[in-house]
Amino acid sequence: MSLFRAHLVFYRCALNLNSSYNFGFLVAITFVLQIITGITLAFRYTSEASCAFASVQHLVREVAAGWEFRMLHATTASFVFLCILIHMSRGMYNSSYSYLTTAWMSGLVLYLLTIATAFLGYVLPWGQMSFWGATVITNLLSPIPYLVPWLLGGYYVSDVTLKRFFVLHFILPFCRLHSNCITHLLFI
Questions:
Q1: TM spans, by residue (predicted)?
Q2: Which of 87, 135, 147, 163 is most buried, judged by most C-beta within 10 A?
């Protein structure tokens, strides 16, 4: 009975609890929606450089409700960042970083991994903007020795890069969910 009371009935909460505390939960909900729409989109995506753009166009134009899933995935990504920024702003306003340092640091790691995942997803349609976006961002990482050839699979953005970015875009959310989200929730 004490386990039931400890985890389901009584929780410690802040005295200044208000509706702004809902944004952490909204981040989780939008993140789950991203995973569901992403898996649905991955069924029709081809990570070959010669076919990636055509597979996205096929998804948008020919697959029933394909454009809805793509737009839902894209706009939910923006909503994830909006909720994260509001959630972090509330934490800064309440000075949560000073007394919940583990939760704050794990939240920052989650935020950086979310930025990396969003960038990898931006590259996947393999249009002109995504190709040159990948080129510019990876060139910003070039001062770090051996990182760019490892990340790109060579010295320039190519077919291997697209495949690596697709795999990383697919795996990073689950790594976030497994390690940092659990840490973040345990230390609240």
A1: 21-43, 69-87, 99-124, 130-153, 165-187
A2: 87
